[in-house]
Specification:
Length: 87
């Protein structure tokens, strides 16, 4: 593999590890929300979280963006899963 390919694998694995850890910690809350206040489906709720992350990314200092970008990638993965589940 090239260096770039190795970096792609490492970055994707890092996002995967983060998503799995958050799922262990918080349960399946992104894809199966309990809907106490919001009655929106999981896809719509994930889109709201993505909007929040994009807003943070727009307003953050340069050195604060890495975690936000990783979270954003994670939410995009969850969005893809949610959309697939609803089809």
């Amino acid at each position: 593999m090239t260096n770039t390919q190795e970096e792609i694998v490492a970055t994707c694995n890092s996002v995967c590890d983060l998503l799995l850890e958050k799922n262990r910690r918080y349960g399946d809350s992104a894809l199966s929300p309990i809907r106490i206040f919001s009655k929106s489906d999981s896809t719509e709720q994930i889109k709201v979280r993505i909007d929040d992350k994009l807003n943070r990314l727009k307003n953050l200092q340069e050195n604060d963006t890495e975690d936000t970008i990783t979270d954003l990638i994670g939410y995009l993965v969850l969005l893809k899963i949610s959309i697939k589940r609803t089809k």
